[in-house]
Amino acid sequence: MRRDLAETAVPAPLARFLSKAEVLKITGWSDTTLWREERAGRFPASVQTSRNRVGYLESEVRTWHEARIAARNARAA
Hints:
The protein is about 50% helix and about 15% strand. By secondary structure, it is of the alpha+beta class.
């Protein structure tokens, strides 16, 4: 009997959440600035990971970070 390809495929790794402390370290921002940027839609939204914790998807933070660098490089060119 032939197994379906989807049954034999290796599952994708789970997305990693960054803690607020990790995001503050990456951005160099204060807690208040992170809150303002997130609320204004200029930074990826947090995800409630438990009752008292939020996390940020690493892939979204990485994309935001790379976009900031690309914008800087475009201005310099």
